[in-house]
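F.,

This is the one I mentioned.
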């Protein structure tokens, strides 16, 4: 029997639930028997490298990986078929388009379909490859939950759970020391993790990328809290939050091929802003960082990731290429890649959870 080949790629940042998607694709394909599943190491870089770095994924290899964090295929947000880094003779770096070369190589390797698991950047690559004739399907992956074409993405609820547990721990130490404790969580342009963690963890102030804050109003909220004899304040802030009229807090980035602006350090920025505005209280900062995207996925994300993996392979069988898997409650369905990338899912002022947060007295610095 002539076997067909489906390539799995995991790109962008790692995320709890990636391995559950991989496992689901392999197990669903095993039912069909005429399909072989292979994986590219570090997104499409495994195809582009010489020698090629791909692995055969069978049921034995994916056994038990559904509860493991990260991805057994590894991942990267550098390089890729449309922006491969190349060093010039003078020591500087540039990028070249190797997409046509990669497509020829995949044809040589007998790859009939591709399942690309990733966020906005990865699905931009999916769309470009589809336009070049590649039989590709996208699976949404982002802990920021910033894609409007799907009700939720796997890994997001795990990140919220981790952030909430951090708030729980900081509340007790803030109360013990009569301090202002600032927790910085992920969320470049969408503040869903911060908003959910603030509500679930009982923070008093939540600062989001969608709503630039007035530092004087933040300080006013802090002082009001102390004046009511509470003696402590917990602030949750997204990495993409910023004061009115100011830019994002950008960390210097020296990694070759890394195109995104690396955000971070906003907790310390906020601390200094509060002190400059006249805050007399003791302030400490905590940056949760990559703890949010590592470790064991919670049950919800394992289930959603498994549903996404099964749906993705069934789309391969049906020839539904150029589309992305989507969760639209209660169905696991799909949308075109073009529709998937049209608009980000941002926190709006009239979002139900925003109304709830304001209803329980959380301040947003606006």
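My design for it:
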């Amino acid at each position: 029997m002539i076997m067909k080949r489906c390539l799995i790629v995991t790109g962008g940042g790692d995320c709890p639930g990636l391995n559950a998607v991989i496992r689901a694709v392999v197990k669903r394909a095993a039912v069909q028997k005429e399909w072989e599943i292979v994986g590219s190491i570090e997104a499409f870089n495994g195809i582009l490298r010489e020698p090629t770095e791909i692995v055969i994924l069978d049921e034995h290899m994916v056994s038990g990986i559904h509860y493991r964090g990260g991805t057994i295929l590894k991942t990267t947000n550098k390089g890729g078929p449309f922006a491969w880094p190349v060093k010039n003779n003078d020591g500087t770096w540039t990028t070249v388009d190797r997409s046509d070369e990669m497509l020829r190589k995949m044809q040589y390797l007998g790859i009939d379909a591709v399942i690309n698991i990733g966020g906005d950047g990865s699905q931009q690559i999916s769309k470009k490859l589809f336009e070049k004739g590649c039989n590709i399907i996208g699976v949404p992956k982002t802990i920021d939950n910033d894609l409007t074409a799907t009700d939720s993405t796997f890994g997001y609820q795990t990140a919220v759970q981790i952030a909430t547990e951090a708030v729980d721990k900081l509340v007790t130490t803030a109360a013990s020391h009569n301090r202002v404790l600032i927790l910085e969580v992920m969320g470049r342009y969408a503040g869903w993790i911060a908003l959910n963690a603030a509500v679930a963890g009982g923070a008093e102030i939540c600062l989001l990328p969608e709503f630039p804050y007035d530092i004087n109003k933040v300080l006013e909220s802090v002082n009001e809290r102390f004046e009511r004899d509470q003696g402590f304040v917990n602030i949750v802030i997204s990495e993409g939050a910023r004061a009115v009229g100011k830019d994002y807090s950008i960390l210097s980035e020296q990694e070759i091929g890394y195109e995104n602006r690396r955000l971070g350090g906003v907790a310390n920025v906020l601390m200094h802003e509060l002190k400059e505005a006249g805050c007399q209280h003791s302030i400490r900062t905590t940056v949760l960082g990559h703890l949010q995207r590592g470790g064991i996925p919670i049950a919800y994300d394992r289930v959603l990731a498994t549903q996404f993996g099964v749906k993705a392979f069934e789309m391969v069988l049906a020839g539904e290429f150029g589309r992305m898997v989507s969760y639209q409650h209660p169905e696991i369905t799909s949308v075109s890649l073009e529709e998937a990338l049209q608009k980000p899912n941002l926190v709006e002022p009239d979002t139900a959870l925003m109304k709830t947060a304001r209803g329980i007295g959380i301040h947003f610095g606006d």
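The mean pLDDT is 93.

Talk soon.
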